[in-house]
User: Fold this.
Amino acid sequence: MSAGNVTIDRVVTSGTFSLDGGTWDVDNNVWIIGDDSECIVIDPAHNPEAIRQAVGERTVKAILLTHGHDDHISSAGAFWELVKAPIHLHQDDWMLWRTVFPEIDPDVAIMDGDEFTVAGSTLKALHTPGHSPGSVSFHLASEATLFSGDTLFQGGPGATGRSYSDFPTIIDSIRTRLFPLPEATVVRTGHGDSTTIGAEKPHLDEWIARGH
Assistant:
Protein backbone atom coordinates (compact mmCIF):
# COMPACT_ATOMS: atom_id res chain seq x y z
CA MET A 1 0.00 0.00 0.00
CA SER A 2 3.03 2.27 0.13
CA ALA A 3 5.92 3.36 -2.01
CA GLY A 4 8.08 3.74 1.09
CA ASN A 5 7.70 3.09 4.79
CA VAL A 6 4.25 4.66 5.07
CA THR A 7 1.23 2.43 5.43
CA ILE A 8 -2.41 3.46 5.14
CA ASP A 9 -4.94 1.47 7.13
CA ARG A 10 -8.71 1.81 7.14
CA VAL A 11 -11.01 0.97 10.04
CA VAL A 12 -14.74 1.07 9.28
CA THR A 13 -16.87 2.01 12.27
CA SER A 14 -20.64 2.26 12.63
CA GLY A 15 -22.83 4.73 14.48
CA THR A 16 -25.15 7.66 13.86
CA PHE A 17 -25.04 11.16 12.39
CA SER A 18 -27.38 13.84 13.75
CA LEU A 19 -28.06 17.32 12.40
CA ASP A 20 -31.06 19.60 11.96
CA GLY A 21 -33.25 17.37 14.11
CA GLY A 22 -32.66 14.16 12.17
CA THR A 23 -30.52 11.11 12.93
CA TRP A 24 -29.18 8.59 10.43
CA ASP A 25 -27.20 5.35 10.69
CA VAL A 26 -23.77 5.71 9.09
CA ASP A 27 -20.56 3.78 8.50
CA ASN A 28 -17.42 5.91 8.70
CA ASN A 29 -13.94 5.37 7.31
CA VAL A 30 -11.20 5.97 9.87
CA TRP A 31 -7.76 6.39 8.31
CA ILE A 32 -4.47 5.55 10.04
CA ILE A 33 -1.30 6.76 8.32
CA GLY A 34 2.14 5.84 9.62
CA ASP A 35 4.77 3.15 10.11
CA ASP A 36 5.58 0.62 12.82
CA SER A 37 6.35 3.26 15.45
CA GLU A 38 4.12 6.28 14.84
CA CYS A 39 0.93 7.28 13.09
CA ILE A 40 -1.68 9.97 12.49
CA VAL A 41 -5.38 9.15 12.80
CA ILE A 42 -7.97 10.92 10.65
CA ASP A 43 -11.58 11.06 11.93
CA PRO A 44 -11.63 8.49 14.79
CA ALA A 45 -15.39 7.88 14.58
CA HIS A 46 -17.79 5.87 16.73
CA ASN A 47 -15.56 3.15 18.21
CA PRO A 48 -12.45 4.49 19.96
CA GLU A 49 -11.34 1.12 21.30
CA ALA A 50 -11.40 -0.56 17.88
CA ILE A 51 -9.33 2.28 16.47
CA ARG A 52 -6.87 2.08 19.35
CA GLN A 53 -6.47 -1.64 18.71
CA ALA A 54 -5.70 -0.91 15.05
CA VAL A 55 -3.10 1.65 16.18
CA GLY A 56 -1.50 -0.95 18.46
CA GLU A 57 1.65 0.14 20.25
CA ARG A 58 2.35 3.02 17.88
CA THR A 59 2.55 6.61 19.09
CA VAL A 60 -0.31 8.72 17.73
CA LYS A 61 1.23 12.05 16.71
CA ALA A 62 -2.04 13.81 15.90
CA ILE A 63 -5.78 13.37 15.56
CA LEU A 64 -6.89 15.18 12.41
CA LEU A 65 -10.58 15.94 11.88
CA THR A 66 -11.77 16.62 8.34
CA HIS A 67 -14.82 18.51 9.64
CA GLY A 68 -17.05 19.01 12.65
CA HIS A 69 -20.12 16.85 12.02
CA ASP A 70 -20.91 14.71 15.04
CA ASP A 71 -20.31 11.34 13.36
CA HIS A 72 -16.72 12.44 12.77
CA ILE A 73 -16.03 14.12 16.13
CA SER A 74 -18.26 12.68 18.87
CA SER A 75 -15.77 9.91 19.70
CA ALA A 76 -12.71 12.16 19.39
CA GLY A 77 -12.74 12.97 23.10
CA ALA A 78 -12.81 9.32 24.13
CA PHE A 79 -10.09 8.49 21.61
CA TRP A 80 -8.00 11.36 22.97
CA GLU A 81 -8.31 9.77 26.43
CA LEU A 82 -6.83 6.56 25.01
CA VAL A 83 -3.91 8.03 23.03
CA LYS A 84 -3.37 11.58 24.40
CA ALA A 85 -2.68 13.10 20.98
CA PRO A 86 -3.64 16.67 20.04
CA ILE A 87 -6.94 17.13 18.22
CA HIS A 88 -6.84 19.37 15.13
CA LEU A 89 -9.94 20.96 13.55
CA HIS A 90 -10.38 23.98 11.30
CA GLN A 91 -11.61 27.00 13.24
CA ASP A 92 -14.65 27.46 10.97
CA ASP A 93 -16.11 24.20 12.32
CA TRP A 94 -15.54 24.88 16.00
CA MET A 95 -19.20 25.94 16.31
CA LEU A 96 -20.13 22.36 15.30
CA TRP A 97 -17.56 20.96 17.75
CA ARG A 98 -19.12 23.00 20.57
CA THR A 99 -22.53 21.40 20.05
CA VAL A 100 -20.87 18.10 21.07
CA PHE A 101 -18.16 19.37 23.43
CA PRO A 102 -19.37 22.71 24.86
CA GLU A 103 -16.82 22.76 27.66
CA ILE A 104 -13.57 22.18 25.76
CA ASP A 105 -12.11 23.27 22.43
CA PRO A 106 -9.91 21.29 20.03
CA ASP A 107 -6.20 21.54 20.76
CA VAL A 108 -5.19 23.13 17.45
CA ALA A 109 -6.96 25.09 14.71
CA ILE A 110 -6.03 23.71 11.29
CA MET A 111 -4.95 26.37 8.80
CA ASP A 112 -4.94 25.94 5.03
CA GLY A 113 -1.49 24.71 4.03
CA ASP A 114 -0.59 23.23 7.41
CA GLU A 115 1.71 20.23 7.13
CA PHE A 116 1.81 17.16 9.36
CA THR A 117 4.81 14.84 9.16
CA VAL A 118 4.56 11.15 9.97
CA ALA A 119 6.86 8.26 9.08
CA GLY A 120 8.96 10.57 6.93
CA SER A 121 6.01 11.69 4.78
CA THR A 122 3.93 14.84 4.91
CA LEU A 123 0.18 15.38 4.94
CA LYS A 124 -0.84 18.84 3.71
CA ALA A 125 -4.12 20.42 4.78
CA LEU A 126 -6.32 21.81 1.99
CA HIS A 127 -9.25 23.92 3.18
CA THR A 128 -12.18 22.61 1.11
CA PRO A 129 -15.36 24.25 2.50
CA GLY A 130 -18.85 23.45 1.29
CA HIS A 131 -19.97 20.33 3.13
CA SER A 132 -19.21 22.42 6.20
CA PRO A 133 -17.41 25.78 6.51
CA GLY A 134 -14.29 24.22 8.00
CA SER A 135 -14.03 21.08 5.91
CA VAL A 136 -10.42 20.10 5.21
CA SER A 137 -8.90 17.49 2.90
CA PHE A 138 -5.43 16.08 3.53
CA HIS A 139 -3.05 15.42 0.64
CA LEU A 140 -0.35 12.78 1.09
CA ALA A 141 1.62 13.49 -2.06
CA SER A 142 4.27 10.81 -1.47
CA GLU A 143 1.58 8.13 -1.68
CA ALA A 144 -0.51 9.85 -4.39
CA THR A 145 -3.39 9.89 -1.90
CA LEU A 146 -6.02 12.38 -0.78
CA PHE A 147 -8.13 12.00 2.36
CA SER A 148 -11.22 13.92 1.30
CA GLY A 149 -13.46 13.60 4.35
CA ASP A 150 -16.99 14.35 3.14
CA THR A 151 -15.95 16.78 0.40
CA LEU A 152 -15.53 14.36 -2.52
CA PHE A 153 -16.93 10.86 -2.92
CA GLN A 154 -17.16 8.24 -5.62
CA GLY A 155 -19.91 9.76 -7.75
CA GLY A 156 -19.95 13.33 -6.57
CA PRO A 157 -19.56 15.94 -3.86
CA GLY A 158 -20.59 15.55 -0.25
CA ALA A 159 -24.09 16.48 0.84
CA THR A 160 -24.95 20.18 1.02
CA GLY A 161 -28.64 20.07 1.95
CA ARG A 162 -28.22 20.76 5.67
CA SER A 163 -27.16 23.61 7.92
CA TYR A 164 -23.80 25.29 7.34
CA SER A 165 -23.37 23.68 3.91
CA ASP A 166 -23.39 25.23 0.45
CA PHE A 167 -23.38 23.57 -2.97
CA PRO A 168 -21.61 26.31 -5.01
CA THR A 169 -18.91 26.43 -2.32
CA ILE A 170 -18.22 22.68 -2.39
CA ILE A 171 -18.11 22.71 -6.20
CA ASP A 172 -15.58 25.55 -6.07
CA SER A 173 -13.49 23.64 -3.52
CA ILE A 174 -13.46 20.51 -5.65
CA ARG A 175 -12.72 22.39 -8.85
CA THR A 176 -9.96 24.62 -7.51
CA ARG A 177 -8.36 22.58 -4.71
CA LEU A 178 -8.85 18.89 -5.55
CA PHE A 179 -9.17 18.48 -9.31
CA PRO A 180 -5.77 20.15 -9.98
CA LEU A 181 -4.14 17.20 -8.18
CA PRO A 182 -2.68 14.42 -10.36
CA GLU A 183 -5.42 12.27 -11.88
CA ALA A 184 -3.86 9.10 -10.45
CA THR A 185 -4.40 10.44 -6.92
CA VAL A 186 -6.42 7.95 -4.86
CA VAL A 187 -9.28 9.63 -3.02
CA ARG A 188 -9.90 7.97 0.34
CA THR A 189 -13.27 9.19 1.51
CA GLY A 190 -15.05 9.68 4.83
CA HIS A 191 -17.66 7.07 3.92
CA GLY A 192 -17.82 4.30 1.32
CA ASP A 193 -15.40 3.25 -1.39
CA SER A 194 -12.30 5.05 -2.55
CA THR A 195 -12.01 6.56 -6.02
CA THR A 196 -9.47 8.64 -7.97
CA ILE A 197 -9.28 12.25 -9.08
CA GLY A 198 -9.18 11.06 -12.70
CA ALA A 199 -12.36 8.99 -12.30
CA GLU A 200 -14.37 11.88 -10.84
CA LYS A 201 -13.01 14.88 -12.74
CA PRO A 202 -14.94 14.32 -16.02
CA HIS A 203 -18.28 14.43 -14.17
CA LEU A 204 -18.09 17.92 -12.67
CA ASP A 205 -20.52 19.46 -15.15
CA GLU A 206 -23.03 16.66 -14.50
CA TRP A 207 -22.92 17.39 -10.76
CA ILE A 208 -23.43 21.10 -11.35
CA ALA A 209 -26.39 20.38 -13.62
CA ARG A 210 -28.08 18.09 -11.10
CA GLY A 211 -27.36 20.47 -8.24
CA HIS A 212 -25.97 18.01 -5.68
User: Anything to note?
Assistant: Residues 7-210 form a domain with the Metallo-beta-lactamase; Chain A fold (CATH 3.60.15.10). The mean pLDDT is 97.
